[in-house]
Specification:
Oligomer: single chain
Number of helices: 3
Radius of gyration: 20 Å
Length: about 100
């Protein structure tokens, strides 16, 4: 049983690493204003596969923490213009609702 759990853990770890690479490819496509539909669909399929593997892992008796991919994006990839725009709209809506 432990061999099966360890095999599932290895698959999960490899899948998460592949997912992080695909997420980086999607971010790159978005930066260059390209269509990322195909990559996004592959990523959603990987997420379904990951959920199935986690279910198998739990059914096999896995109870420890699952492995995380070593390469995780920790920096903020959002453009600063979008985040500033949201805060302006939020303050405007707060002022409007406060006057009523």
């Amino acid at each position: 049983m432990d061999n099966r759990i360890n095999e599932i853990r290895r698959k999960i770890s490899a899948l998460r690493a592949d997912m992080s690479e695909l997420e980086a490819a999607i971010r790159n496509q978005i930066e260059h204003d390209l269509d990322c539909t195909e990559c996004a669909l592959r990523l959603m399929a990987m997420r379904q596969e990951l959920a199935a593997l986690i279910g198998d892992w739990k059914a096999a008796g896995g109870g420890d923490r699952l492995p995380m991919a070593d390469v995780r994006p920790k920096e903020n990839h959002r453009s600063p213009a979008k985040s500033d725009h949201k805060s302006e709209n939020k303050s405007e809506t707060l002022r409007i609702t406060a006057r009523r």
